TrEMBL record:
Source domain of life: Bacteria
Protein name stated in the entry: Uncharacterized protein
Organism name: Streptomyces aurantiacus
Length: 76
């Protein structure tokens, strides 16, 4: 898991799509959305060997989550 986070963070810093789908970005409304992913149709296949759950399961836990306005203001 840590390797996936590190690789995705490096991709984010280089403004490239992430590989494992571990990073989300806040929207102006306060919800979270997945940062761009390399080959989205197959990225769950990359998550499995890293012991990451399928993205749909992971995303369902965060679907209703919102950030407080003071947290999203910095991203507007």
């Amino acid at each position: 898991m840590r390797q996936a986070l590190l690789v995705d963070r490096i991709c984010l810093n280089r403004r490239q799509p992430q590989h494992s789908g571990t990073l989300c970005m806040p929207t102006l409304s306060g919800s979270l959305r997945l940062y761009r992913v390399t080959d989205p149709k197959r990225f769950d296949n990359r998550r499995h060997p890293l012991d990451l759950e399928p993205h749909t399961e992971w995303a369902n836990r965060f679907q209703a989550q919102t950030l407080p306005p003071e947290r999203t203001a910095a991203f507007g």
